[in-house]
Amino acid sequence: xxxHLLHSARKSLPTGxxxxxxxxxxxxxxxxxxxxxxAADYSVVDVTLKLRWYNRNIVGTHFGGSIFAMTDPVYMLMxxxxxxxxxxxxxxxxxxxxxxxxxxTLQAHFVMxxxxxxxxxxxxSGNEKYIFDLPIDVMNEQNEVVASVVRTLYVRTKVGFxxxxxxxxxxxxxxxxxxSS
Length: 181
Hints:
Layout: H1 2-9, H2 15-23, H3 26-29, E1 33-38, E2 44-49, H4 64-69, H5 74-83, E3 87-98, E4 106-111, H6 114-124, E5 130-139, E6 145-157, H7 158-166
Antiparallel strand pairs: 1-2, 2-4, 3-6, 4-5, 5-6
């Protein structure tokens, strides 16, 4: 119920209140992830992950899943807020490359430039989908890269999304169907 209210109200919530509510969201709260800053225009988001007893792995460093989770769904949220209601935005895929063990407090500094927003608008202007990658490095307190993450995002205008959903489903070719017994 609370998640549904947050989802329906997300368009009109002030950034400070949205940050507060996101920080209470169980997947982030339970992992020790905290949103520290959201710019008023959603162009910058800062996320931290403190090393705690409940998010350590067997060798005493940050659990890799928590490091990965701190990058989800930040870019998607930034795009949703900057593009507005006439777009559909999804996290489509992600990959992570761990560079060194994570110790202490980790941080990720997300930036959504006006150039990225303009490229997305240009690529989706014909109601086509646009799938693209955005990188983010997770840093330690010594400003060293602990992990490099690439998030793959899907963006399409709602008009294009609805039109694509309305298309009839293609039927499988004879080679796609299993043999009958």
